[in-house]
Specification:
The structure is a single chain. The chain is an alpha/beta fold. It has eight helices and ten strands. The chain has one domain (about 5-230): P-loop containing nucleotide triphosphate hydrolases (Rossmann fold, 3-Layer(aba) Sandwich), CATH 3.40.50. The protein is about 35% helix and about 30% strand. Helix 5 packs parallel to helix 6 (about 175-195). It starts with a strand and ends with a helix. Bound molecules: adenosine-5'-triphosphate and magnesium ion (MG). Adenosine-5'-triphosphate binds next to strand 1, strand 2 and helix 1.
């Protein structure tokens, strides 16, 4: 039987803002096999980014657990969780999260620096920046790049260490169809060539179809596709 690479077990998370409580996740459970490309879709506010942060070990759940490659995050110390996260996960954030003072090249390479010298692979750098059409933009800082280019830099940064899993939150959210296509094809290609597991959050049904399988979320829960009105409309 195929191996689960990342697993969510009854994840729950409530935000408190003054007296208002927002139950962002109300018990989410699923598993993704090694090498699978899974899309997560759902309307704005359904809890997708909250799930992304929990799966990536960037925030803690109120209850439930995340198991990544056999390690239950809840049982790891903060330092161990951070170490695993850096080694195993490539992140693409909804808002890019590029460092404004660094050019594109340094924004990509910083992910490698964090892991140390042993991980440098100039051929891989050239290949992914070439495939993402960034070769002529490597000396530009984020403010000197278009939104699409910034997102492609963010994707190159996520892929530079050949992570076992790529977590991408709306990687095509702010992109036109041409840029979206480049990003989605790159994710597909690294999934197929390197056997990387990909979990991509999107509200775009066309983007979601790049995945092998689609998880539908609504109001902090997983729902069946036929209970996802947004989806049925397409
Ligand atoms: N830091 C926070 N503090 C309080 N409430 C929050 C916080 N982050 C998210 N929420 C609330 O939790 C719910 C889920 O938010 P989340 O960002 O996970 O949704 P999403 O599905 O990613 O939406 P979008 O498609 O707009 O990115 C929303 O109702 C949101 O208002
Ligand atoms: Mg979001």
């Amino acid at each position: 039987m195929a191996e689960a690479f990342i697993e969510a077990r009854d994840l729950r998370k409530t935000y408190h803002v003054g007296k208002i409580e927002v139950q962002a996740l109300r018990g989410i459970s699923f598993s993704v096999q090694k090498g699978e490309f899974v899309s997560v879709v759902g309307p704005s506010g359904s809890g997708k980014s909250t799930l992304f942060y929990l799966l990536g070990g960037l925030t803690r759940a109120d209850s439930g657990s995340v198991v990544l490659d056999g390690d239950d995050f809840a049982t790891l110390s903060d330092a161990e969780r951070t170490r695993k996260r850096k080694r195993k996960i490539g992140f693409v954030f909804q808002k890019f999260n590029l460092l404004p003072t660094l050019d594109a090249r340094s924004n990509i390479l910083i992910a490698q620096e964090i892991l140390g010298n042993g991980h440098r692979d100039p051929a891989h750098f050239d290949r992914i920046t070439g495939l993402l059409g960034l070769t002529k933009r490597l000396g530009h800082r984020p403010a000197e790049l278009s939104g699409g280019e910034q997102q492609r830099v963010a994707l190159a940064r996520a892929l530079i260490n050949k992570p076992a899993i790529v977590l991408a939150d709306e990687p095509t959210g702010n992109l036109d169809s041409k840029n979206s296509d480049v990003v989605l094809r790159m994710l597909r290609q690294s999934n197929q060539e390197l056997g990387q597991t990909v979990l991509m959050i999107t509200h775009n049904p066309e983007a979601a179809r790049y995945g092998d399988r689609i998880i539908h979320m609504r109001d902090g829960e997983i729902v069946r596709p036929e209970d996802d009105p947004q989806w049925v409309a397409h």
